[in-house]
């Protein structure tokens, strides 16, 4: 059985003043690539992940959406995420 998993996280530092969005892609429990809003692009951790990250980074509309996730996903849902 093969399994693919996607995990997105928002890290809030000092409320919404400093927000970090992290998106991780796993395949068979192995981290293959990751997006970090502080870095601004996907980084691959396996040979397949490097190719996938390079292909994903070359999609301007998709990457614009990922870069905007800090505001549209994290800051927008801040009160939902925090107690």
From TrEMBL:
Supply one GO CC term from the record: MHC class II protein complex
Report the InterPro entries cross-referenced here. Answer: MHC/Immunoglobulin, MHC_I/II-like_Ag-recog, MHC_II_a/b_N, MHC_II_b_N
Tell me, what is an example of a GO biological process annotation in this record? adaptive immune response
Where in or outside the cell it occurs: the entry states: Membrane
Residue ranges annotated for the MHC class II beta chain N-terminal domain, each copy included: 8-82
Q: How does it sit in the membrane?
A: Single-pass type I membrane protein
Identify the main location.
membrane
Q: Which UniProt keywords apply?
A: Adaptive immunity, Disulfide bond, Glycoprotein, Immunity, Membrane, MHC II, Transmembrane, Transmembrane helix
Check the record and name the PANTHER family matching this protein: HLA CLASS II HISTOCOMPATIBILITY ANTIGEN, DRB1 BETA CHAIN, MHC CLASS II-RELATED
UniProt name for this protein: MHC class II antigen beta
Organism encoding this protein: Pica pica
């Amino acid at each position: 059985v093969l399994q693919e998993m996607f995990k997105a996280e928002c890290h809030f530092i000092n409320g919404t003043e400093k927000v970090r969005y992290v998106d991780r892609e796993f395949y068979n429990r192995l981290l293959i690539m990751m997006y970090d809003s502080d870095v601004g692009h996907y980084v691959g951790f396996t040979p397949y992940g490097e190719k996938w990250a390079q292909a994903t980074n070359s999609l301007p509309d998709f990457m614009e959406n990922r870069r905007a996730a800090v505001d549209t996903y994290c800051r927008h849902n801040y009160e939902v995420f925090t107690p």
